[in-house]
Specification:
single chain; about 170 residues; alpha+beta; 8-stranded antiparallel sheet; 5 helices; 8 strands; about 30% strand; globular
Length: about 170
Amino acid sequence: MTEFQITDLKHFMEKLLKTDCFDDFLLREAVITVAHTFSIDGRIVKEFYSSEEAEDPALLPYPLACWSALRPICFSLIKGKRTPVSLKFILYLKPEKANTLIQESGGLIPANMIEAFVLTLRYRSGVMSCISALSLSDFLADKTAERLWAEAVRRFLLQKGISFQEP
């Protein structure tokens, strides 16, 4: 697990909420605390859809909602004159992007152990942090996969022009 502290909060929030910068991610969970606390579970509720829709991979390609689909809802809860009390977004890298990362590792990331490449965005007391982590199916003593994911997040932030420091 590696933490990156965002140094330009306004720029970061604009990238997160108003652009496609994070659209390679799925939303697992969002907790937004303003005057009230709003919680969004990103898991798709298949019972909401007809049986044909629920089985259509073009309509529902993932078990979680795409960040791009829920981004406007999150933005509507946050926008306003007051700063939120806190925010937490748990994002999972889309499976096709995860597979690319695994392949590019040359076998250093054990594909059968990785359930998700996780990026947790946490804001509290004026500080925004991006935390890279792995969701694993079993204990993995070797930290190579974690280090490679942290490095991928570091490159992502740099490529997107997001300034950060590592505490």
